[in-house]
Each structure stands twice: as structure tokens, then as C-alpha cells.
């Protein structure tokens, strides 16, 4: 049967869900996207994800032809149409169909599609034993070129990072920014814990304003930790007691080795475990039911 995909105002079967070769999302990576989840029928921070989508669109001067409320409705309908309780939803808005020149004024109508499916980034064992991360040679996009705060369809910076991490035999790649400070990983924000202080790089260091990141900062406070958004170096990471990554797809995953250095005891940390449990609880209680 396949999935029902929302595509430009209609639900179509995944086999019929096709877009033009003249779509600038494909020709130039010109567009924006979001990835969100539902947990047991609850939409986790849906409004926040949709707000971020519109902020990304504004940054690239892409006017989404439906309102935020309409977009929320489209997402909810797509999940329901596919009868999914636990799902991963990809919302994509491209510049639309144009000609072979890059001028976005040639694209009169943005393309919108929504896929509700499942995602599993890492096998379960890595949530138990932790990930191996390496610093990769490619630097995070400069904030003054393609600002990493924009969740754009132009993910080559991240894909190069993923290839470099894989080539180095690691599960994840750590991006530094052009000044050498820690930015984030290929599709996750990074956190460390040192003596009950929970730290993550500021958005201005070249990180996405992650929605899981935001939830974790809140949970850290609730668990009695001091939380900081501060510049971090690799030295800080190597000498941390605990380290973990956050993202909608990855959720919260411990990191136990960075560039060959064991982090803390070399096993996932106690506070990381507490935060993971608290996050799991949050996903099952906080999300809106439509
Ligand atoms: N940094 C980057 C570069 C991301 O792409 C995050 C951090 C975490 O943000 P959230 O808001 O999700 O906590 C992301 C999100 C995928 C995939 O298909 C990637 C993300 C989200 C969903 C799916 O690999 N990245």
C-alpha cells in the first residue's frame, strides 16, 4: 500500500509522490525543512518546529503559501492519514518549479510536501554503550555564509561531515566552527557535563537552535543542574565527565569516545541517563494530542 504523502494540497500514494526535475529544491538545494516526532499520538513541540520552519523560510526569503496554523493542520492530517502513533515527520518546502537559472523569482509557487514515517539513526546498542565521535576536517558553515541556524535543504556541509566521520571509522562527526570552537555534530547538538554543570555551545558558535537541545536545557535545570550556553573547545570535551548528543532523530545518545579519548569513565554517564529518562517521560506527557 505504501505511505500517504501530502504533496501540494493533496494526499498521494508514495509511488505517485513525485516532484519536477525543475524544482529548485532539487536543482539548487533551495528550500527549508523540519523533522519532528510523535510519541504515542502526541506531537512533540509541533508548534516550535513549525515556527522554526517559518524562520528558516524567512531567512531565505521564501514565502510559504499556507499559514502556520494551516501547516500544523497539514502535519496532523498526514500523521493521522497514515494511522501512525509513533512517527517521524519530514516537512519540506522548496522554492518550487523554475527554469534552469538560479533566480528564485522564476519560481512562482513553492512546493510543499510532508512525509510521516519512521526513523532510526543508530542501532539500540549505541544508546546503551555510547557513540564514538571524531572531529572532522570540514568546518561548519560560517554564520555569515549559510547560517547553520537555517534548516535548509542545502545539507552538503553535514553530508561531507558524515562521510568524513564514516571514513574515519566513527559513528558521528564533530564540527568545529572556523575559529576552532565546537559547533555541533552532523544532525545533532552536543552537550557536556562537568561537575553538575550542563554545557552546550551557543547558537552563534554555528549550531542549530535544536528543539531537543532546548528541552534538555530545561530538563537539566529541573534536575538541579547549572546550565550554560558557552564556547567549548575540544579540550573541554575530552575532559568532560559526560557527553551526549541531542536531536529529533537521534533523541539523546551518549558519547563515550571523542578522537580516541575516553570520556569520563568510558561508559554512558549517570546524569546522561537521568536526562534520557526525563526526556522520554516528557515526550510521553507534554506533547499535544490533536
Ligand atoms: N543540528 C543539526 C545540523 C540538525 O540537522 C539538530 C542539530 C537537532 O535539532 P532538533 O531540533 O531536531 O533537536 C539537527 C536536526 C536526519 C535528521 O534525517 C536530522 C535532524 C532532525 C531529524 C532528522 O538525519 N537534525
Number of strands: 15
Helix content: 25-40%
What is the CATH class of the largest domain? Alpha Beta
* Most strands sheet: 9 strands, mixed
The CATH architecture designation of the largest domain is Alpha-Beta Barrel
Report the average pLDDT across residues.
97
Bound heterogens, unique = 3-[O-phosphonopyridoxyl]--amino-benzoic acid
> Which shape, going by the Cα principal axes?
globular
The CATH fourth-level homologous superfamily of the largest domain? D-amino Acid Aminotransferase, subunit A, domain 2
**Domain tally:** 2
Question: In the CATH scheme, what's the topology name of the largest domain?
Answer: D-amino Acid Aminotransferase, Chain A, domain 2
Describe the structure.
By secondary structure, the protein is of the alpha+beta class. It has 2 domains: 4-117, Aminotransferase class 4, branched-chain amino acid transferase, N-terminal domain (D-amino Acid Aminotransferase, Chain A, domain 1, 2-Layer Sandwich); 124-285, D-amino Acid Aminotransferase, subunit A, domain 2 (D-amino Acid Aminotransferase, Chain A, domain 2), CATH 3.20.10. The chain has helices spanning 24-28, 46-59, 68-81, 124-129, 156-167, 211-222, 234-238, 270-285; strands spanning 4-7, 10-13, 31-39, 42-43, 87-94, 111-117, 131-135, 172-176, 182-185, 189-194, 197-200, 226-229, 242-247, 251-258, 261-262. The strands form 2 sheets. Strands 7, 8, 9, 10, 11, 12, 13, 14 and 15 form a 9-stranded mixed β-sheet that branches. Strands 2-1-6-5-3-4 form a 6-stranded antiparallel β-sheet. Strand 3 (31-39) and strand 4 form a beta hairpin. The longest helix has 16 residues, at 270-285. It is globular and about 55 Å long. The two termini are 25 Å apart. It binds 3-[O-phosphonopyridoxyl]--amino-benzoic acid (PXG). 3-[O-phosphonopyridoxyl]--amino-benzoic acid binds at residues 35, 158, 184, 187-189, 208, 210-213, 246-249.
